[in-house]
Design a protein that fits this description.
Number of domains of chain B: 2
Strand content of chain B: under 5%
Strand order of the largest sheet of chain C: 6-7-8-3-9-10
Strand content of chain C: 25-35%
Order of helices and strands of chain B: HHHHHHHHHHHHHHH
Radius of gyration of chain B: 28 Å
CATH class of the largest domain in chain C: Alpha Beta
Distance between the termini of chain C: 39 Å
Structural class of chain B: mainly alpha
Largest interface: A-B, 94 and 92 residues
CATH superfamily of the largest domain in chain B: MetI-like
Oligomer: heterotrimer
Chains: A mainly alpha, B mainly alpha, C alpha+beta
Low-confidence stretches of chain C: none
CATH architecture of the largest domain in chain B: Orthogonal Bundle
Low-confidence stretches of chain B: 1-17
Number of domains of chain C: 2
Largest sheet of chain B: none
CATH topology of the largest domain in chain B: MetI-like fold
Radius of gyration of chain C: 25 Å
CATH architecture of the largest domain in chain C: 3-Layer(aba) Sandwich
Number of strands of chain C: 22
Structural class of chain C: alpha+beta
Largest sheet of chain C: 6 strands, mixed
Number of helices of chain B: 15
CATH superfamily of the largest domain in chain C: P-loop containing nucleotide triphosphate hydrolases
Shape of chain C: elongated
Mean pLDDT of chain C: 88
Chain lengths: 298, 313, 365
């Protein structure tokens, strides 16, 4: 038996080997195309990093290869960014706005999602489908009437107006994600808790939310990312530097006297993009789950 | 039923009113609690989405100073302007071509990643999703720098290969191309993630059955993969059409609508007229032109989705 | 129509050997059932015949040709999956005609063949429905219809009845047997249910731990198992096993089960067993061969008394469970002969059907 076993261990020649070779070729071509796509997707961030680490002189110089850092890495651009611009003010404002919006969004969405997925009342199914429909009304349609409304409320040029309007971007989708997650939790869990003596609020806080935590994390990440990246509303409603947020501030206000300091601009863009990227790096699975849960379960 | 009567003889004799009355109160309380929990959501949607949407219709029918009611005057004015028709054309070209390429690249990359051994998939998926994670405004800035007329790194390569520089943002047709390119770059990863999840949800046994029935790889794709993915393809395309059609960041940052207003889309044109020039009603009128197109495509795609869902689920 | 052969086939997954060197030859038109517990390698073997798994070593032949390197679509086989694997977006007609449509068969021929298969399986009025609208049994029939339409060399079934409820399973079993009688294609059928194996198969292949324990007709496996595993696997409820010893009682052999219980060995087996006197052996006897005392019983020495612990009335017969030396034994008695738990009763052991197993090799003597 051992002699036979050794004999048959040798790789088969002939058609078998060519089938295996075909499969390996398919894998190699997959990798080749994937590398090409990866280059396409990662070139801009790479270039942004490279530019932010160059001196102004090298940035301006036309002959040197812009894709590498030829004359030494320097952190001057970052130093300039933090010391001589309003960048940190933008950062602070964005942090305040985002934290408030995420908190508001999560409270509103969790409550609404729990109610819509578990309890039945007149109009609940209508509301659930209606949430999906609100995405047919984009921010670029609403920002004009909202401008009027925000002006009427006296919140124009205040970052609190952002806290007011950002939830329109986050709450519908977060509610939708969480309805999906909550529906997948068996109702028997609720019933067991109620029989054990828990009230509705207790059941929500002690049983439901811990079990639905992955969905809640995914929704939180989504709310954070959307708030951080919002551009239309701050562009329309905020004018002065002390109220401005990162996205608009980096893109429009870092330009001094018509001189585009690209090294510093890229540094600003990278630091502004850092928080979402860091969250993505550590919580990638939740990030992706948030996106796919909405569509594949819906 | 009979057994219950035998086991609990006292139950049926009790007056029905007391336990039933408190039960009714409890049910009412429960549904009111449910409604109250939804109230913040309803408030936000009603006050900040539905009301402004309707208000914008009213707003679009006012004069620039908002003192007179001009009916459809703003709309008529827009329909007579060449710039507006260019905006319509550009928005359509922008949305349709960008969504097409995003879906195509998403489908191809999803298949490529799905073919990899499981361990590597996570790594590649992570790398390929980066464009979607970076806030669009900031990556648009990065692209602007890549397209800069004097310092474009792309042109540096082209010059090195012996070609002539491309006026990425200064020539109207190249500018349109650049804007679409950036949108495709940004949005394709979303399609990749969605389609990858959809590919994984197709049961492996269907492919095995098809293989035994005699289907080769391409036939399996056409007859199994695509039909099973029809729902999610429809949903992602709809979602993306809406978002792309209403896109603001890329055009505003890279071209501000130029050169010669040829890259304006509805959002940037509305911004220009409404906020920059201070004619809010006119801006509202521009924005409102978006809505019918979005609504019509939504109706069509949703109908198709619901029909197939009923057939297949 | 063709025969299937496996020669020294091995399947290795990473470090685990799922199938260890099995050889099997299935002649044309035979209905062979691979049966065994979960993880014994039967499904893997079936998938290797289908081409869905590649054999790590050995040859797989269909119709006399080595097909190791032939992809499934070219092997001219058809498979019925446990989960039916019906294409959800196609009607029943489209599901059944898919293979033919891929081969560009003319439409008229497709129609005749599908309608023929539908008639055999009694699903003609389901042709325009979608899988979602069908019951489990109907879906199973469509899956079989898809296989029949292809008119392949070999039918492969992968636990097709496992997802059906008990009553439906019995019905479908008969259907499958009837279809095989009509269509007469070589069939390889995998199941973990030995009743299915016994009722459907021309020959049964009992597998365990990646190896073939025994191949034979159902009758042979039942009456002449070769290993302890086969003896205990075939038959429901399972064979009773007890440690025992052979002793000489004058000229006759006796099998001693415990201090108080010994039976005479039938003369027909005595010659075979003589060499094992004194060794520690395992005694095996099926529950259906431990009954109430019969009036035509040949040997009073085969009767004994036992006190049941548990009594299960099954209607036609009653199962009686009692203990010998701590081991639980099952007997099948007529309902009127059964005693209540705790009440001693007389039982008769039909030793013509006894088996002795060498515990060192697990082979039946």
């Amino acid at each position: 038996m051992t002699a036979q076993a050794i004999a048959v261990e040798h790789p088969r020649a002939g058609i078998g080997a060519s089938l295996r070779r075909n499969r390996r070729w398919a894998l190699v071509t997959s990798y080749v195309f994937l590398v090409l796509f990866a280059i396409f997707f990662l070139t801009p961030p790479y270039y942004m990093i490279v530019t932010s680490l160059k001196s102004d002189a090298e940035v301006a110089h036309l002959a040197t290869n812009p894709w590498i850092i030829a004359n030494g890495v320097t952190l001057d651009q970052y130093r300039l960014l933090f010391r001589e611009t309003d960048f940190l003010i933008y950062f602070k404002n964005t942090v305040i706005v985002t934290l408030c919006v995420v908190a508001i969004t999560m409270v509103v969405s969790v409550l609404a999602a729990f109610s819509l997925s578990r309890m039945r009342f007149w109009g609940s199914t209508l509301l659930a489908t209606g949430i999906f429909l609100t995405y047919l009304i984009p921010d670029t349609l609403l920002f004009i009437p909202l401008f009027q409304i925000v002006r009427g409320l006296g919140l124009l040029n205040s970052y609190w107006s952002m806290v007011l309007v950002y939830p329109t971007l986050t709450v519908p989708f977060c509610t939708w994600i969480m309805i999906g997650y909550f529906q997948s939790i068996p109702k028997e869990l609720d019933e067991a808790a109620l029989i054990d003596g828990a009230g509705h609020m207790q059941m929500l806080l002690k049983i439901f939310i811990p079990v639905a935590l992955p969905g809640i994390i995914a929704a939180t990440i989504f709310a954070f990312t959307v708030s951080w990246a919002a551009f239309v509303y701050p562009m329309a409603f905020l004018f002065s530097a002390d109220q401005q947020v990162l996205t608009v501030g980096t893109v429009t206000s870092l330009i001094k006297a018509d001189v585009y300091k690209w090294g510093m601009l890229m540094a600003g863009a990278l630091v502004a993009a850092a928080p979402p990227l860091v969250i993505y790096a550590f919580l990638m699975d939740y990030y992706i789950a948030g996106l796919t849960a909405g569509a594949t379960k819906g | 039923m009979v057994e219950v009567a035998q086991s609990y003889p006292g139950q049926l004799a009790q007056p029905a009113s007391r336990p039933q009355a408190s039960l009714r109160r409890f049910m009412r309380r429960r549904s009111t609690i449910a409604f109250l929990m939804c109230l913040p959501l309803i408030a936000i949607v009603a006050c900040l989405i539905v009301y402004p949407a309707f208000y914008s219709i009213y707003l679009a029918m006012l004069s620039k100073a908002q003192t007179k009611f001009v009916g459809l005057g703003n709309f008529a004015y827009l329909l007579k302007r060449d710039t507006f028709w260019m905006v319509v054309e550009q928005s359509a070209i922008f949305a349709l071509s960008a969504v097409f390429f995003k879906a195509l690249i998403g489908l191809i990359t999803a298949h490529l990643v799905n073919n990899l051994p499981a361990k590597g998939q996570r790594k590649w998926r992570g790398m390929l999703l980066v464009p979607w994670v970076i806030p669009l405004a900031l990556s648009s800035l990065g692209w602007w720098w890549l397209f800069d007329p004097t310092h474009s790194a792309f042109n540096w390569i082209i010059r090195g290969l012996g070609g002539s520089e491309i006026p990425w943002l200064s020539d109207p047709y190249w500018a349109r191309f650049s804007v679409i390119l950036v949108n495709v770059w940004y949005g394709a990863p979303f399609f990749l993630i969605m389609y990858l999840a959809a590919l994984k949800s197709v049961p492996e046994q269907l492919y095995e059955a098809a293989a035994i029935d005699g289907a080769n790889a391409w036939q399996r794709f056409v007859h199994i993969t695509l039909p099973m993915m029809r729902n999610i393809i429809a949903i992602t395309v709809l979602f993306s059409l809406i978002v792309t059609f209403a896109n603001f960041d890329i055009v505003q940052i890279m071209t501000a609508g130029g050169p010669r207003n040829m890259t304006h889309v509805f959002a940037t044109y509305a911004f220009l007229l409404g906020i920059r020039s201070g004619d809010l009603p006119l801006g509202a009128a521009v924005s409102l032109f978006m809505f019918p197109i979005l609504a019509v495509s939504a109706v069509f795609i949703l109908r198709g989705v619901r029909k197939r869902g009923r057939d297949m689920a | 129509m063709a025969d299937v052969a496996l020669r020294n086939v091995v399947k290795r997954f990473d470090k685990v050997d799922a199938v260890r060197e099995i050889s099997l030859s299935i002649p044309d038109k035979e209905f062979v059932v691979l049966v065994g517990p979960s993880g014994c390698g039967k499904s893997t073997t079936l998938r290797m015949i289908a081409g869905l798994e590649e054999a790590s070593a050995g040859d797989i032949l269909i119709g006399g040709e080595v097909v190791n390197d032939v992809p499934p679509k070219d092997r001219d086989i058809a498979m019925v999956f446990q989960n039916y694997a019906l294409y959800p977006h196609m009607t029943v007609f489209e599901n059944m005609s898919f293979g033919l449509r891929l081969r560009r068969t003319p439409k008229a021929e497709i129609r005749t063949r599908v309608e023929q298969a539908a008639k055999i399986l009694d699903i003609t009025d389901l042709l325009d429905r979608r899988p979602k609208q069908l019951s489990g049994g109907q879906r199973q029939r469509v899956a079989m219809g898809r296989a029949i339409v292809r008119n392949p060399k070999v039918f492969l079934f992968d636990e097709p009845l496992s997802n059906l409820d008990a009553k439906l399973r019995v019905q479908m079993r008969t259907e499958i047997k009837r279809v095989h009688q009509q269509v007469k294609t070589t069939t390889v059928y995998v199941t973990h249910d030995q009743i299915e194996a016994m009722t459907l198969a021309d020959r049964v292949v009992v597998m365990n731990g990646g190896r073939i324990e025994q191949v034979g007709r159902p009758h042979d496996l039942y009456h002449r198992p070769k290993t302890r595993f086969v003896a205990g696997f075939i038959g429901s409820p399972a064979m009773n096993f007890l440690p025992a010893r052979l002793a000489l009682n004058g000229e006759d052999l006796q099998v001693r089960l415990s201090d108080g219980l010994a039976f005479p060995v039938p003369a027909s087996d005595a010659a075979r067993y003589r060499g094992a006197v004194g060794k520690e052996l395992t005694f095996g006897l099926r529950p259906e061969h431990i009954t109430e005392p019969r009036r035509d019983a040949r040997d009073a020495r085969r009767e004994f008394t036992a006190t049941p612990d548990v009594v299960e009335p099954m209607g036609m017969e009653t199962m009686v469970y009692f203990a010998i030396n701590g081991t639980e034994i099952c007997a099948r008695v007529a309902p009127e002969a059964a005693a209540a738990p705790g009440q001693p009763m007389r039982l008769y052991a039909n030793l013509d059907h006894m088996h002795l197993i060498d515990p060192a090799t697990d082979l039946v003597l």
